[in-house]
Amino acid sequence: MLMSPAVRTRLSSIQSFRALTVRAGADVELSNHPDDHGLQRAEQLRDRPDGPNPFMLGRPRTERFMAVMEAMLCGRIADAETTGSRDEPRPRAAGTHMYC
């Protein structure tokens, strides 16, 4: 699997955004990905405007969402390192990771 520099940039962005959401006490998860059920949640909100807001997850779940996003990118980078990708350096020692 070849990793582009954009993956490292995205990881850095997620790490920065994760720190900001923790400091701000964010309790909402919004994403522009089509597989995050955002459209269904928007329909729920439209159908039940006085009901619970499906985007408000609470701080623990929002923090977990950001941690999972970071872990997934770290995993992609680790996979590239172990397969010898041209774009990503190999780990320095067994069990260590250079980015995460």
Folded structure, characterized:
It is a single chain. With 100 residues, the chain is mainly α. The chain is built from 3 helices and no strands. Helix 1 runs antiparallel to helix 3 (59-82). The longest helix has 24 residues, at 59-82. Mean pLDDT is 81; it is low at 86-97.
Task: Spell out the blueprint of helices and strands.
Blueprint: H1 5-24, H2 38-47, H3 59-82
Mean pLDDT: 81
- SS element count, helices: 3
> Can you summarize the main beta sheet?
none
What is the total tally of β strands? 0
Structural class: mainly alpha
Using the alpha-carbon principal axes, give the shape: elongated
**What distance separates the N and C termini?**
18 Å
Query: Helix proportion of residues, in percent?
Result: 40-55%
Strand % is under 5%
Radius of gyration over C-alpha positions, nearest whole angstrom = 17 Å
Descriptive key words:
100 residues, mainly alpha
Question: Quick gist of this model?
Answer:
The protein has 100 residues and is mostly helical. It is built from three helices and no strands. Helix 1 runs antiparallel to helix 3.
